[in-house]
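This entry is listed as follows:

___
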Amino acid sequence: MNLKIIRDALIIGKMKAFPDLKRQPLLLIVIGILSAIPLFFFAVSGGGEMLSHGLVGAMVSTVGFIGVNSSIQDIGQDRYVKIREMIVATPVHPASYIIGVALAPLLLSLPGIAFFILVAMGMGILNAGALIWIAPALLLCWSSLSAIGFIISTYLYKSSPYTLNNIANILGIGLVFIPPVYYPAEMLGSLSWISYLIPTSNVAALVRGYSGLSGLSLESAVISWLILGTTTIVFTAITALKAKWRET
């Protein structure tokens, strides 16, 4: 990937992120609050241990939910603001647009992610050494769910914004709030293997393992990293093959 693609992606990300921030400066707080809602239930029902798992879930859900939502909703929003039409008319690589669209909400969510990480470090759940592994895991979570969102929007580009919005919300809930993200996979008992099928629960397992909240064998770690990487590569490749950059 050359420097122009990266530079263009950063410009597009800024174009899409900062106008929303100027119009709605409280957006940064809202993103964090949405991810923190389940924490209140865990704090009341499960005490300190479940609160620790809930903090891990908040980190994962912050990057995961915005990844899949932004990628799906972008095609609907473009019908009104027409940014894509303007960018298509310029010498911009499709990869720059895709990365920029996914990057915009990530920029807005960084304060919320940093807040949850600082709280976890203050509680002794995380340490600086664990962040070396946790940071790339969260980035892979963002990229893999963004890739899933883009492939869905590629096949449903003629759907109404209302339909796309509903799909994004349902998919976000299904990938973030239902799987073992806010709670450990061990709570599923004999069905704990299901967690390997979902990108977000793989990330949560890695974060818990590297932070010491739960055990993480070498085999489990390798499987989780492979699933995250494969999901990102496969869905991005399918999107690149099916998307029509100049014709849509």
